[in-house]
Amino acid sequence: MKREHIDMIICPYCHGELKLEIKKEEDGNIIEGVFKCKNCGKTYEIEDGIPKMI
Ligand SMILES: [Zn+2]
User: Fold this and answer.
1) Which of 16, 18, 26, 32 has the fewest CB atoms within 10 Å around its CB?
2) What CA–CA distance (Å, rounded) separates 23 from 7?
């Protein structure tokens, strides 16, 4: 997923703001990482460039 798309993503559970921890990035695409909700603390993994938001 592209870096510029990240700002549009909110926590699907509580609609809180997410903090992104990038583990692997190539050419501005995030390949692996973890979103963590600043509000409820839930985490969502990014695997192969796809955020697992559910
Ligand atoms: Zn949340």
Assistant:
1) 26
2) 18
Q: What is the pLDDT of residues 4-38, one digit of tens each?
A: 888 789 999 999 999 999 999 999 999 999 999 99
Alpha-carbon radius of gyration of the chain: 10
Give me ligand 1 centre to Cα 18, in Å. Answer: 8
pTM to 2 decimal places = 0.85
| Cβ count within 10 A of residue 8 | 6
Distance (Å, rounded) from C-alpha 29 to C-alpha 37? 21
Using the mean position of ligand 1's atoms as its centre, give its distance from the Cα of residue 42 in Å.
Answer: 6
For ligand 1, the distance from its centroid to the CA atom of residue 17, given in whole angstroms, is 7
Centre of ligand 1 to C-alpha 41, Å, is 6
